Amino acid sequence: MMPELINPVLTGFNPDPSIVAVGEDYYIATSTFEWFPGVQIHHSKDLVHWRLLTRVLDRVSQLDLRGCQHSGGVWAPCLTYADDQFWLVYTNVRSHGGPVTDSPHFLVTAPDIEGPWSEPVVLGANGFDPSLFHDKGGKKYLVNMQMGSVGAVGVEERFDGITIQEYCHDRKKLVGERIKIWEGTELGVTEGPHIYRKDGWYYLLTAEGGTAFNHAVSVARSRNLTGPYEADPDGPMLTSANRPDLNLKSAGHGDLFQSPDGSWFTVHLCHRPLQKRGVPETAWDQDKVAILGRETGIQRVAWPDGEFPRLADGGNAPSDIVPAPEGPLYPWEDALRDDFNGPVLNPHFQTLREPADESWLSLSRCPGSLSLKGRNSLFSRFDQSLVARRLQHFRAEAETGLVFSPTSPKQEAGLIAYYDRNNYHYLRMAGDGKGGCRVGVVSSDFSPGMERPLITVQNVCDLKPGAKIYLKMMNEHADLRFAWSLNGEEWNWIEQTFDSTNMGDWSSAISGFAGTFWGLCCQDMTGDGIWAEFDCFDYRIPVKETL
Q1: CA 112, 118, 119: angle at the middle one, nearest 5?
Q2: Does residue 183 carry a catalytic annotation?
């Protein structure tokens, strides 16, 4: 019986997938935006089971995110393999949402997928979503969407077609003329380009329609690399648009690849949005929020010689279950709990905008614990003492034990569900200003239509400084609950149920492309630099998901 893969294959915030097959190994690179280290690499041998293998950009010289706004940073990396090495091109978006976008491109290479990866080569800043095409004869070309010039009303024409320019690796620079090769179809918002050579044709695959509910994968082709390109007359190869019956929404931003048995597939971006809490159920996508962010799915593709690639099952809608290639299965172990007994963090953890440093995050200061030094507030774009992992399931729990001795209400530490600096729920211990501590939940909600974030604070108990307290949160789709305990066995559940749909795509008044993270953090707005000690981070999946 042919094995099946269940979509999405990469759950939680794993958008803009780029895939490469090397021998019997598959590697997917996904965007990480303002989270550090940059560019996640997942590995599989069967397309069914995936493991988080590494992250490529692990030092500031490769990725400087200081001051990065939410959903800036790494957009749509492209991973390829040629000349016995891996190539990764990526954009570090330093500004977006305003009249112009600052988006320099970079290239790094490595002989092995786990590195060491080179220092970056700068490849201009002409738009975003760069990819590298390796043509016959060893020539290489940078392909990306082009940002337009500022228009008469002072607003940049955001999407101005797809361009190509030769890259000389010996000289480590772009050479020759930059040529626009494709304007896109009537769907517009043409981005995410990849080029493939097959059967005497050059095929150009692009994302179109925007990354929300009208997202799509479109394909065009030409006998010449620089065009002119002819669009597939059957329209987009993949889309979820106008299909409220589909589980996988926003299907788009794809990358084609071939398995060792000769079968063709595409990876693609997708959403699984939830109905907004408190909003009556409707068929309209506008009433939904994707708390897990944009995820990665895989579809089978039929690509006969001389024809356009199309989904193997016919039509252009994504399927939840897809036949995998024939062959043995290779399941992986995934350590969800970290007891902080080793020299490094669980690989699922990332930090905000900067690498973890012993000066504020330590596994040796208090052996068997993670020590976090309080720094800036959660609203800051700098010096965030926050370490977190993706929420990857609609039903999940997380637990930690905390020892903390705050002396001021401006000193806080605890367990957080975080989307951005304006949208989070935070179960924390803080000083009460009278020599004691208070435990409670701080929520920040900057939903569309609000002029500024709505901050609410609910204190639930008092505690002596230095006493150990256990903190827990549990998510059930749109509902988020918190609990605390003094012994880790008898739990006191906070009566209020919090809204998890204020965290995710379309939840915020500020444009966002990420997903919910769960983690640990510590703030000290006094500047005294107080430390908090956490004994573990236990992420659990209480039931198998069906959504």
Answers
A1: 165
A2: no
